[in-house]
Amino acid sequence: MKKGYYIHFQGSSSIGVRKKIDMQIEEFSKHYEIEELEVQTPERTLLQRIWGLFPTASISRGYQATMAQLKEPDFIYVRRAVADRKYLQFWEKIKERFPQCKIIVEIFTYPYDKDEFAKWDAWPFYIKELLYRRKLKKYVDRFVTYTDDKEIFGVPTIRTINGIKIENITLVEGKYDEDQITLIGVAHMQSHHGYERIIEGMRDFYQKKDRKHTVSLLLVGDGPEKMHYQSLAQKYGLEEYVKFYPTLSGQQLDEMYDKSDIALASFGTYKKGVFGKLSALKTRECLAKGMPLITGCEIDVLDETYPYVRNFPNSPEKVDIDEIIRFYEGIKRKNKDKTTVANIIREFAVQNVSMDSAMKPIVDYIES
Question: Whole-prediction pTM value?
Answer without folding.
Answer: 0.75
